[in-house]
C-alpha cells in the first residue's frame, strides 16, 4: 500500500494514464510503462525516463494477475458490504463483471483494480492504493452505496451510473440508451442472481 503522503503523486500519475490512452484508436499503438518504488508508490508514464520503468501489456486489459487467497478476498468483501449495507453477492457480481477477480486489472480508460475504480473516484473515496484488494473493495462499495442512495435504491440505475457515470444517468433520468451500459447492467444482475445461489461464496453456479 502506498504511503499517505504519496497519494497525490500516485493518482496524479495514474490520471495521466487515462488521458494519454484516450487519443489512440488502436490500443496496441500506445505504450504504457510502470515503476513501483520501495514504498509501493506506482508511477505510470508513456515516456519512460529510465530503465526502472517496465512496459505494461494493455492489450490484455490487465497487469500481471496476482491471485488473492479466497478467504482473504471473501473477508474483505463481506466486511465492506456490511459496512455499506450491501449484499456481498452484489459486490462479488460487480467484481466479476469489472475485473473477473484480477486485482491488477487496468482498463483502456484507466480504471483500476478489482472494482475498476477511475482515479478520480478512488480519490473521492480516499483509496490510497487502487491495486490493493481491500482498499479497492472499500472504495468500490462506498461508491456503490453513494450511487444507490443518490438514485433512491434503484439498483439498475445505480449500476448504470457505476458504468457510465452518474451525470449520464441524470441526463436521461432512466437507463441510458448506451448498449455497453445496458449490457453491463444485465451482466451484473445475472451474476448477482448466480452468486446469491452459489454454494461457494466466490464461484457462482453455471
CATH-level-2 architecture of the largest domain = Orthogonal Bundle
List the helices and strands in order.
Answer: HEEEHHHHHHH
Approximate helicity band: 40-55%
The radius of gyration computed from the alpha-carbon positions, rounded to a whole number of angstroms, is 17 Å
* CATH domain class of the largest domain: Mainly Alpha
The total count of helices amounts to 8
Cα separation of the termini:
35 Å
CATH topology category name of the largest domain: Lysozyme
User: How many β-strands, per DSSP?
Assistant: 3
Regions with little confidence, pLDDT below 50 for 5+ residues: 1-30, 58-65
Mean model confidence by pLDDT: 79
Q: How would you describe what is shown here?
A:
With 206 residues, the chain is mostly helical. It folds into 2 domains: 4-60, no CATH class; 70-197, Orthogonal Bundle (Lysozyme), CATH 1.10.530.10. It is 49% helix and 6% strand. It has helices spanning 7-21, 70-83, 88-99, 119-124, 133-150, 155-164, 166-172, 179-197, and strands at 32-36, 42-45, 54-56. A hairpin with a 5-residue loop joins strand 1 and strand 2. The termini are far apart. The model is unreliable at 1-30 and 58-65 (pLDDT under 50).
